[in-house]
Amino acid sequence: FFSNMASEEQLKQLDELNNAAKFQEAFTQLTNLVSSHPDDPELLYRYARSHYDIAKENPNDKAFAEEKMKKGFEYSEKAVKLNPNSGPINKWYAIMLGALNDYISTKEKIQNAFKIKEHALKAIELTPNDPVPYHVLGTWCKSVANVGWVERKLAATLFATPPESSYDEALKYYLDAFKLYPNFPVNLIGIGDTYVLLKNYAEAKKYYQQLIDMPPRSESDKNYQQQAAQKIKSC
What we know:
It contains 12 helices and no strands. By secondary structure, it is an all-alpha fold.
């Protein structure tokens, strides 16, 4: 008898590799497991996460990152169709939708905006102690508040009520994530950037500095630290 689902032990091992930032090892294991269990949503969302992680580890290889983000999105979409009532699955679908923004048209971005918000809110409802969906919503609010006039006009033609937000709302979600996980590198960037947009440079500096002082656990952490070191200069 062969189960079409991965075992709890296999999932635990994959999460341990992810937590230890052994992204390539996790990716290799997932590639094998997904080929044996192509309809296991628990594996599929982890495979989406794994695509995201290895793309983030190689930020300078744009073609590689694009290919991995697009493929990862497909796995996250399949996972959410198979199990729409899982917090982590909704979270990773929202993250992968957001990750597509670098590779799609403005019209598609606007069309995806409501979906990102909907799935991030659902993830919060299902797993309220996970900091990541709050961070996703913070980024969503910041990008919607930052939308230019042309994009706003386009959004008004696509939706009766276009997406709306503010930097204050973005900050609220980022700080919610911070309360749950203070040493969350990309969230510290989000808080710092939002304080800059609100012209509160002293607070921005504090969060950038916290990130700079942290021991990095991966290449992407080092990348965020370099960003913070650049950004703090203008505070």
